[in-house]
């Protein structure tokens, strides 16, 4: 994963005034779960493309398209290229029959095949939809709302703390490793060295980072205790997110679309629109 | 300490702050797994190493702390950068925590016995191929997802015409060095930790 991808988690919540931002966090996470599940149920490129368009419209509404595009380029694009090159290519994917483009080289047919390319496109577009929906929910929900939602969902407050503390710790530790790295470089650490030497470099970077983090753990524990973290009382939150009319409208649309999807599966199976393309199980 | 009706003390009670320390360590383990990716990126190393902190947490603070920290790391990644299906990778971290704990209990995860440590790393890597392949089947459709071993995947697919075999062989090629180096790193960092930082509960 590149530093650009880490920058996205580092930046966390993006404050904007949009329809998506005004939705309750529960609605956004429900949408994320809902669209992810249905994208993994259907084996149909058209379904995932329509889902992706819907999610991208919401992304544009929330004005986080740069974030999303960066993540998709970093995470999904390499898988697409590898997949199409190997599974869609001439490496023996068992279902490949129909050549999209082929040339004869030294008596061998080298080409890109429809079945393998569709297989890769379906799986990678599923990934693209779920990643985009996840980012949409995460980047447009305030961390305090996240904590409140977790407590309202009856999750243990210790889990809510651990989840939020991780999100807070990631930028802190990322900054610390940058400082440690600069200090070690000034002491002669060579990141352009041979592979073995670079492996050894991990230790000189990880030991100060880990010991510093453990030290902070003790301070953090004292601070939490001083605020009554383990006190046997009901915990209250600063923010109290509530479901609004727009949230109920979105949930209603999801419920209606669920009925449509169930009807499609019932009547047309898991490949409702891609005529002539067989369902291929992984490894099948 | 409340003993109840029994007149025999059950055990020496742990200090009250100990449980808090362990809970606070869980996000640290998750964040360390994450930040390791930054280091791997800086050093341009051909590995993932995003389970070493799970191993480290298991060694210094116990099984459930390591497993919870590792699982939380995957939950965070699934809800942000990797997409929902990737949460199942969390089971890999739980498995890693369990096997590390077992190997640590029998004394194989220690820098004092390097041969056993290397053997332990290989065991973790080899056995981890099974859950990795299962997840790759369900989430990625057994596609090649890692450029470092894509050529192995392509070679095996070309000779066997079987995506499962290609996925298993390329997983073996990436998992063994990754888990071996992760376990060595966890053991080395744990060995360098001052005693006052040790988070294992005091023995009764």
Entry keywords:
heterodimer; A: 284 residues; mainly alpha; 2 domains; two-stranded antiparallel ribbon; 10 helices; 5% strand; B: 204 residues; Arp2/3 complex 21 kDa subunit ARPC3; 67% helix; 0% strand; disordered N terminus
In the residues of chain B, how many domains can be counted?
A: 1
> What is the tally of helical segments of chain B?
7
Envelope shape of chain B = globular
Q: Please name the CATH topology of chain B.
A: Arp2/3 complex 21 kDa subunit ARPC3
The succession of helices and strands of chain B, N to C, reads HHHHHHH
Query: What composes the largest sheet of chain B?
Result: none
At a glance:
Chain A is mainly alpha-helical. Chain A has 10 helices and 2 strands. Chain A is flat.
Present the secondary structure layout.
The complex is a heterodimer of chains A (284) and B (204).
Chain A: H1 3-11, H2 19-22, H3 25-41, H4 45-62, H5 65-86, E1 99-105, E2 108-113, H6 114-139, H7 143-152, H8 157-186, H9 195-226, H10 245-268
Antiparallel strand pairs in A: 1-2
Helix pairs in contact in A: 3-6, 3-10, 4-6, 5-6, 7-8, 8-9
Chain B: H1 16-43, H2 52-61, H3 63-78, H4 90-105, H5 114-139, H6 150-160, H7 163-191
Helix pairs in contact in B: 1-2, 1-3, 2-3, 2-4, 2-7, 3-4, 4-5, 5-7, 6-7
Can you give a write-up of this model?
The complex is a heterodimer of chains A (284) and B (204). Chain A has helices at residues 3-11, 19-22, 25-41, 45-62, 65-86, 114-139, 143-152, 157-186, 195-226, 245-268; strands at 99-105, 108-113. With 284 residues, chain A is mainly alpha-helical. Chain A folds into 2 domains: 1-142 and 243-284, no CATH class; 155-238, no CATH class. In chain A, strands 1-2 form a two-stranded antiparallel ribbon. In chain A, helix 3 runs antiparallel to helix 6 (114-139), helix 3 (25-41) runs parallel beside helix 10 and helix 8 crosses helix 9 (195-226). Chain A starts with a helix and ends in a 16-residue tail after the last helix. By secondary structure, chain B is mostly helical. Chain B has one domain (16-197): Orthogonal Bundle (Arp2/3 complex 21 kDa subunit ARPC3). In chain B, 67% of the residues lie in helices and 0% in strands. Chain B has 7 helices and no strands. Chain B has helices at 16-43, 52-61, 63-78, 90-105, 114-139, 150-160, 163-191. In chain B, helix 1 packs antiparallel against helix 2 (52-61), helix 1 packs across helix 3 and helix 4 (90-105) runs antiparallel to helix 5. The longest helix of chain B is centred in the last third of the chain and has 29 residues, at 163-191. Chain B is globular, with a radius of gyration of 19 Å. The interface between A and B is large, with 82 and 73 residues.
